[in-house]
Amino acid sequence: MKVNKAILGIEWQVLLLLGFFLSSKLSIAQGQLQFAALGDFPLQNGQVMKDCKIGYRTFGKLNAMKSNAILFPTYYGGTSASLIGYIGEDQMLDTIKYFVVIVDAFGDGVSSSPSNSVSQPGKLFPEFSIKDMVDAQYQMLTEKLGIKHLYAVTGISMGGMQTFQWMMSYPDFFDKAAPIVGSPLLSSQDLLLFDLFSKIMEQCQDADCPEITALALELEYLTGFTPAYRKENTSPNALPNFLKAIEKEASNYKLRDLLSQMKAIGKHNVTNECEDSLEIAAKRFKGAALITIANQDQTLSPLSSIALAKLMNAKLLELDTNCGHYAFACEKERISEAVRNFLN
Predict the structure, then answer these.
(1) Per-residue pLDDT tens for 130-165?
(2) Which of 36, 90, 114, 149 is deepest in the core (most CB within 10 A)?
(3) DSSP string, 29-72
(4) What pTM value is reported for the model?
(5) pLDDT greater than 70 at residue 2
(6) Which residues form the domain of 205?
């Protein structure tokens, strides 16, 4: 597959263009999309998500003790299908050893989202948090899949945020955590960026606004990679075509779905359950942790992840690449090897 370096877009597209489907020995048919109906789901803000549903895919076999399950939540703008390339015998999560559950986060257009809700469509869809995502996943695992304990939780970007939240909300429910370029606590720079993302998307007053989605994607490209990466991969003469590609790509997304997840990201703070103290949060999870950060990340500051890793005496994998936040894609093999070794 030829990689078009001029238009490495939103997270799932970055992974797709890097060809992560090509090397897996996994039978894709094994991971058919399934749904868990949770009924009317109460949210942290007091609202109710009506007719709540969670999409998920399973790979591998759950052992007799039900002790080999790994949860893998999705990132911003991605779906469970986007993560299949990380699953397989020779990939990050070995399906010979583990039973892997990829779960679709709220707002991804598969699980309950503004775009697919019948009773609360569009603007009527309630705001949710990262903790709401995690609470719904816990209910799905325990009530629908009969899993009372996980071996590990891992996730990328917003999936990493969910992993950190799992460490705080259900610290005794699993043994190992591997958040990848996520964040337990947003910096003021992060908050400023996500506020800008939300304000751009909130300009849409219609059912959908491709031109505003394109603006949000353009901002993501601007912050997701470093200036050095953009200089190396997009010449000034190529920029007009780059912008046209962004406009075309915007039609693949539902703006209100992206906005709902962006608002959840912008409110994320694991210390809410820990007296606003990262020190207290560090004592909450008693299992082992491998925390992966990108030193040049301009989308999610790595500082709070570094601080938490030190407080927990956790393993820290530092990626230093001009891919910035998208180091998770550029350094996929290195991350996969580190996570495999950590899980083993």
Answers:
(1) 999 999 999 999 999 999 999 999 999 999 999 999
(2) 114
(3) GGG--EEEEEEEEEPTTS-EEEEEEEEEEEES---TTS--EEEE
(4) 0.92
(5) no
(6) 5-343
